[in-house]
Amino acid sequence: MMLINNKEKVECIHDSGSQIISMSAEIASNLGLSYNPNIVLNMQSANSTMDNVPCTIGNITVYLQIHILRSSAYNILLGRPFDVLTRSIINTLSDVETTIAITDPNTGQRRTIPTFPRSKSKRNHCQNVCFKTEAPHCFHRQRHG
């Protein structure tokens, strides 16, 4: 989970193939975030944007420009702009385990974050981040045990 706008922890999906960071309109509304509906991307479903939304992972806070989607299959999608800002490094440990190392753009502090197959929660209750990652199907195999 990522703390959004200093209000609520929201599940995120990491997809370095996406050219934007996006959020569902429902989540934006639930968080009480205001956005500019006059900004429209040349995409089928993006309908506005929010600038400088504080997003916290552990003790690292980054300010993101987030595009709002009317209907999406996820809460928040962290795309390539997130990777560039945080200088993220993806480390695939096995076919089911991946971590993301990020750097605070202001302090240089680094943090390594575990990721989990989508809609699987792991024993991550003591940490305040739970990235979900979109990966090829082979990375989403069921664990036994």
What descriptive keywords fit this protein?
145 residues; mainly beta; Cathepsin D, subunit A, domain 1; 11-stranded mixed beta sheet; 11 strands; globular; disordered C terminus
Radius of gyration: 15 Å
User: Number of helix segments?
Assistant: 2
Strand content: 35-45%
Number of domains: 1
Read across the widest sheet, the strand sequence of neighbours is 2-1-5-6-4-7-3-11-10-9-8
Distance between the termini: 24 Å
Q: Give the helix level as a range of percent.
A: under 10%
Q: Which geometry do the CA atoms define?
A: globular
Would you state the CATH class? Answer: Mainly Beta
Structural class: mainly beta
Q: H/E series, N to C?
A: EEEEHEEEHEEEE
Low-pLDDT parts are 122-145
Question: What CATH architecture label applies?
Answer: Beta Barrel
- Average residue pLDDT: 75
Count every beta strand, where a strand is a DSSP E run of 2 or more residues.
Answer: 11
CATH domain topology: Cathepsin D, subunit A, domain 1
